[in-house]
Amino acid sequence: MIPRQSYMLEDGERLTDAGMKAMIPMFVRGREGDSHNCGGCSMFIPGKDDGPGGCTIVQGDISGEHGTCLYWAKAKGKPPKASDAHDCRMTKSEADYVEPSSKINCSTCKFVRGNRCALWRGTVGPGDCCMAWSQR
Ligand code: SF4
Ligand code: SF4
To answer: What is the pLDDT of residue 12?
Structure first.
């Protein structure tokens, strides 16, 4: 897995759009839909009665609709059950879990410069977000 530091580049040492996406496979962009949300991950444990779900490797409530993390892996077959959760699950912080919302998105990130991200050369919008989100 890619350590967080590897894409924490100084201003002026930016990655290209393609480079950024290659280094952060779970790059989340509002414009690109739900392709890497927890609900489509093989570790996602569906919640009951529309309640929050869980994860076999990450602690706490997990949003199938909005959440994602560095360990996303495409779901195959039946989803896991709560009893499949590992005893030593990571914290959300350790997994770089993010849940883009009205408070967590590119517009509230310390790396945004106008409509561009200081970490790479692409443009970003308020509906976009990525694993490197950091509170401004
Ligand atoms: S928190 Fe990560 S590993 Fe767990 S379901 Fe979501 S994307 Fe998958
Ligand atoms: S502004 Fe922040 S959240 Fe948006 S792409 Fe850049 S680092 Fe990621």
So the answer is: 54
